[in-house]
Each structure stands twice: as structure tokens, then as C-alpha cells.
Design brief:
Elements: E1 6-10, E2 16-20, H1 28-123, H2 125-143
Helix pairs in contact: 1-2
Length: 147
């Protein structure tokens, strides 16, 4: 070997390491791959950091959209419940009105029946007395114990 030639071995990573001849410089070929590796690792770290930031922003956007959807859904449910309650109140009011009308009609029919019976009793008191006596006798027979 002459004094300007480099002698060395190739390591497992493929980079040349070793010592130079008489010039006195050592590791000049070893620092370039190390610096390149550091640079590549730095770039990879930067890319990872950017990817993490992008992922975080995407997650924030998705969470914000989901929150907005929940608020919209909640408002829709409240609106539907309010409409349902209003419809229920209206239906209950209609049913109450119809029930009042039916009760009024039944009361009127009852008054008419009482008036009609009262008039019949005035016109035929003996027949009314006989009918009452017969009705009492039938009720007594039905309710008496058969001992």
C-alpha cells in the first residue's frame, strides 16, 4: 500500500470504516453516511410529526362534525317531541269535547225518560203502582236466599 491509499474494512451497514495512510485523517468516509443517516432520521421525524399533526387536525374536525350532528339531531328530537306533545294535547282536547257532548246527550235522554215516566204516573197512577209492586216482587225473589 502506498501512503495515499486508504485501507479499511466494510462494516455490516456497507460503509467503509478504518484509517487512512500517512495523511493523518481518520473517519472522513465514515462521517458522510452517519450525517446522511442523521439527516434521513431527521426528515423521517419531521414527516412523522407532520402526519401526527394532520391526524390530530382530522380527528378534531371529525369530532367537531360529530358534535354538530348530535346538536342537530337533538334539536330535531326536541322539535318532534314538541310537535308530538302538541298533537297529543289537541287530540285530548277533541276527545274531551266529544265526551262532554256524549255526557250532555245522555243527561238529556235521562231527563226526557224521567219526564216521560212522571207524566205516565200522573196519567195512570194505578198502573204505575201495579208495575212498581210487580217489579219489587221480582227483585225480592231474585235476591232472596234459597235456604
Amino acid at each position: 500500500m502506498n501512503s495515499n491509499q486508504t485501507s479499511g474494512t466494510t462494516g455490516s451497514s456497507g460503509s467503509t470504516t478504518g484509517t487512512t495512510g500517512t495523511s493523518g485523517t481518520s473517519g472522513t468516509t465514515a462521517t458522510k453516511p452517519t450525517e446522511s443517516m442523521k439527516s434521513n432520521l431527521g426528515e423521517a421525524g419531521t414527516h412523522l410529526k407532520q402526519a401526527a399533526q394532520h391526524t390530530g387536525q382530522t380527528l378534531k374536525g371529525a369530532a367537531s362534525a360529530a358534535g354538530e350532528e348530535l346538536r342537530t339531531g337533538q334539536a330535531g328530537i326536541k322539535s318532534e317531541l314538541s310537535e308530538s306533545a302538541s298533537a297529543t294535547r289537541a287530540a285530548a282536547s277533541e276527545v274531551a269535547g266529544a265526551a262532554r257532548e256524549q255526557a250532555d246527550e245522555l243527561m238529556e235522554k235521562g231527563r226526557d225518560l224521567i219526564d216521560s215516566a212522571s207524566e205516565l204516573i200522573r196519567e195512570r197512577p194505578m198502573a204505575a203502582f201495579g208495575a212498581a209492586l210487580a217489579a219489587g216482587w221480582v227483585l225480592a225473589k231474585l235476591t232472596r236466599n234459597n235456604d
